[in-house]
């Protein structure tokens, strides 16, 4: 619409300069008239200055039209690049362009963040849907038997509940801490809660669960999320431990350690075990591994402000250290 009225729009924008020029011509004519000067120089001067003003007006109009069409193209998203902005003429235009560039950069960053989150969510739910099919398939087979194995059914039900809870927790983690409720808790109490929730896994594989020393210490954390962390670590420990035990103890107040006698983790896999979707050598052996559990653990620890580290030796076991001390986080 504006293209049909370009001349009128430009004339309206320049009305101040046009009025000043008109006033200048009027004053000059008035001076010539009052002093009874010859008309020739007046006419010559008026024509010359009008011609110069008209030339400047036309040049300004052409530059203005080009700039407007560039901006119109950006507005219509023909040009998405920030560098496509026309050259600024005034300080105010420079500020507006810098504001536009900043806004576009923030928009691009937000879009990239949303794209990554969506891709991550798609990956998670794709793997999750395949993961949860296993216990459901086993339960379907068990109910078809004349005398269903109740203990086996219960174990598969626990797995299904755990997978569902993981999906719910994954969604809650995206709320950036709105679900957190910090308080002081006895480490022993939190460990027992996680142990009860994963007890069937230990029973199924006939592994010993040992509560070691130092768990009578107090830790500042969120009860629900800390139990979730322990539950995931216990589940992983059971998954990769064929015989022996899983021991939990406090190395010192505020530092909880989970140590197993499992197959261990390859040295080259250790730096990447918390990466989203990374399964490593052990995960490839276990076809049902998604590489998501430990990533959620790390994300939860970061959300709580806890520091987590892993030590492991192949064939000897793995040690997971959760440091809830405030000074440990500040020292990073």
Automatic annotation (TrEMBL):
<keyword id="KW-0808">Transferase</keyword>
<keyword id="KW-0175">Coiled coil</keyword>
<feature type="domain" description="Histidine kinase">
    <location>
        <begin position="127"/>
        <end position="328"/>
    </location>
</feature>
<keyword id="KW-0418">Kinase</keyword>
<keyword id="KW-0472">Membrane</keyword>
<dbReference type="GO" id="GO:0016301">
    <property type="term" value="F:kinase activity"/>
</dbReference>
<feature type="transmembrane region" description="Helical">
    <location>
        <begin position="41"/>
        <end position="61"/>
    </location>
</feature>
<dbReference type="InterPro" id="IPR036890">
    <property type="entry name" value="HATPase_C_sf"/>
</dbReference>
<dbReference type="Pfam" id="PF02518">
    <property type="entry name" value="HATPase_c"/>
</dbReference>
<feature type="transmembrane region" description="Helical">
    <location>
        <begin position="20"/>
        <end position="35"/>
    </location>
</feature>
<dbReference type="InterPro" id="IPR005467">
    <property type="entry name" value="His_kinase_dom"/>
</dbReference>
<dbReference type="InterPro" id="IPR004358">
    <property type="entry name" value="Sig_transdc_His_kin-like_C"/>
</dbReference>
<feature type="coiled-coil region">
    <location>
        <begin position="93"/>
        <end position="127"/>
    </location>
</feature>
<protein>
    <recommendedName>
        <fullName>histidine kinase</fullName>
        <ecNumber>2.7.13.3</ecNumber>
    </recommendedName>
</protein>
<keyword id="KW-0812">Transmembrane</keyword>
<dbReference type="InterPro" id="IPR003594">
    <property type="entry name" value="HATPase_dom"/>
</dbReference>
<keyword id="KW-1133">Transmembrane helix</keyword>
<keyword id="KW-1003">Cell membrane</keyword>
<keyword id="KW-0902">Two-component regulatory system</keyword>
<dbReference type="InterPro" id="IPR050351">
    <property type="entry name" value="BphY/WalK/GraS-like"/>
</dbReference>
């Amino acid at each position: 619409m504006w293209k049909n009225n370009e001349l009128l729009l430009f004339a309206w924008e320049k009305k101040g300069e046009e009025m000043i020029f008109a006033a200048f011509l009027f004053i000059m004519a008035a001076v010539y008239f009052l002093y009874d000067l010859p008309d020739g120089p007046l006419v010559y001067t008026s024509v010359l200055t009008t011609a110069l003003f008209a030339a400047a007006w036309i040049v300004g109009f052409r530059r203005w039209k080009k700039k407007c069409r560039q901006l119109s193209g950006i507005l219509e998203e023909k040009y998405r690049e920030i560098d496509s902005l026309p050259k600024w003429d005034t300080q105010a235009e420079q500020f507006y362009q810098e504001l536009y560039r900043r806004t576009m950069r923030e928009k691009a960053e937000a879009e990239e963040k949303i794209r990554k989150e969506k891709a991550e969510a798609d990956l998670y739910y794709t793997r999750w849907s395949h993961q949860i099919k296993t216990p459901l398939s086993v339960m379907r087979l068990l109910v078809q038997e004349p005398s269903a194995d109740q203990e086996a059914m219960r174990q598969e039900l626990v797995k299904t509940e755990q997978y569902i809870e993981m999906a719910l927790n994954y969604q809650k983690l995206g709320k950036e801490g709105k679900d957190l409720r910090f308080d002081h808790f006895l480490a022993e109490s939190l460990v027992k809660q996680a142990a009860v929730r994963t007890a069937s896994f230990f029973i199924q594989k006939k592994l010993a669960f040992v509560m070691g020393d130092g768990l009578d210490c107090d830790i500042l954390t969120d009860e629900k999320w800390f139990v979730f962390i322990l539950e995931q670590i216990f589940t992983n420990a059971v998954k990769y431990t064929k015989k022996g035990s899983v021991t939990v103890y406090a190395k010192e107040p505020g530092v909880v350690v989970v140590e197993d006698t499992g197959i261990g983790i390859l040295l080259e896999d250790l730096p990447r075990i918390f990466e989203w979707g990374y399964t490593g050598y052990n995960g490839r052996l276990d076809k049902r591994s998604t590489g998501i559990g430990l990533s959620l653990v790390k994300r939860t620890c970061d959300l709580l402000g806890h520091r987590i580290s892993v030590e492991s030796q192949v064939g000897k076991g793995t040690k997971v250290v959760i440091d809830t001390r405030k000074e440990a986080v500040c020292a990073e």
